[in-house]
Amino acid sequence: MTLREDLFADLPDHPETVAFEPTRQAGLARLERFASRTGRHYASQRNYDLGPARRSTVSALSPWIRHRLITEEEVLRQTLAGNSPSAAMKFIQEVFWRGYFKGWMQQHPSVWVSYQHGLHAARNKLAQSVHKNADYQSAIEGRTGIACFDHWCLELKTTGYLHNHARMWFASIWIFTLRLPWELGADFFLRHLIDGDPASNTLSWRWVGGLHTKGKTYLARPSNIAEYTQGAFDPVGQLAQSAPPLSEDQEHPFVPLTFEPPPTQGEALLLVTEEDCHPSFACETPNDVLGLVLPRAPGSAEQPHAFKQGAVEDAVTQFGAQGRALTTQDWTAAVIKAAEQAGTTQILTAFAPLGPIATKLESLQRDLATAGMTLHQCLRPYDALLWPHATKGFFKLKKMIPTVLTELGVADAKTL
Is 60 exceeded by the pLDDT of residue 83? Predict the structure, then answer.
């Protein structure tokens, strides 16, 4: 079975594939190419999923932004260099959604813990039920008989990427038509998406299922799919006709943000992780640079791991020959050795939001303290500015976008 590019061969759109090369240079090149389309073009075309050979409707910048090979601030600055804020507002809002999800989950940390518990429980149920496991295997292998869903499954596994609209349709079909646990779907995405982000992915799946915005769900409709794939798919009679919201017993309390300011001077080892591959803001002239990548987890696809590894390696090269990147499970030994060679007991790294890297850094921090070393996580100024506004729904943050753009210095208050 191969990816059915021929489905989109006759569409009236210029071919435009995107090669997701894990380098800052490639990300900047894609940003330069798409910047002129972040205005009216994006606003009118962004919902059309025309397949992997027709990516001109969207920026496809998410893999580079996710790992901050390029930053949100750079994207906003270049967007507003060629468009008025009003013309580019749809695109600007999409950039801010990423920061909203990160900030919201950081201030509701029990959501991530609850997802982990739910995923564990869902896997246990699969192991106990032949029928449930068969349904799950049919879904992740693209054998449901729903052509659009099966195609997106294959596209994801082949390319490591899906159009955002397809992600919404996919999640809705998974939850309401196939009636599979949302946690398993979120996990499937994280294992295959090269732009997979714990906050954006978890909260997007919760939003589709009616857990993030209580009672508000997203129903994939055949007519919508037919319209925005320009007739490539039309699953009439195959999809659920209603989307009753999921429920949960647990509440997720708000936890205020607290960050310790990093040291302003002194020698340091700079640690680069997949969470921020442009970390010069944390330490412009480190004694040495070390990049660390976790080994590929069992069941995870090769593409996301290869992109993470390449991104960290590229980040390290930005500091010259002194830097190096390692793929290892034992971060403690690697950091202690690098710090000793660099002649410092102080390690700086970009702040890691909730997720596997944050968990790894927490463990690393405890181990380093025992060894007489200190790990400081430096919060990027963009996040420090944005996250305090991500306490409730996106609308609250949306109202603050003009203020944030002005404070970032990427837009003149007079034009907003």
Answer: yes
> Domain spans of the chain?
5-106+385-415, 110-228, 269-378
Residue 94 counted as an annotated binding residue: yes
240: its two tokens = 């659920």
**What fold characterizes domain 110-228?**
DNA Cyclobutane Dipyrimidine Photolyase, subunit A; domain 3 (1.10.579)
Helices 72-82 and 394-408: angle between axes, nearest 10 degrees:
70
pLDDT of residue 8: 44
CATH 1.25.40 is the classification of domain 5-106+385-415: yes
44 is in an annotated binding site: no
pTM strictly above 0.70:
yes
> Is 58 marked as binding a ligand?
yes
Query: In angstroms, what CA-CA distances link 65 with 50, 61, 113, 296, 415?
Result: 22, 6, 25, 21, 26
Instruction: Give the architecture (CATH level 2) of 269-378.
Output: 3-Layer(aba) Sandwich (3.40)
Residue 179: both structure tokens together: 């009636």
The annotation status of 97 as a binding-site residue, yes or no, is: yes
61 marked as part of a ligand binding site: yes
| Extended strands (E) in 211-281 | 269-272
Asked if residue 378 lies in contact with residue 350, where contact means CB atoms within 8 angstroms, the answer is: yes
Token representation of residue 385: 């500015």
Check residue 415 and give its pLDDT. 67
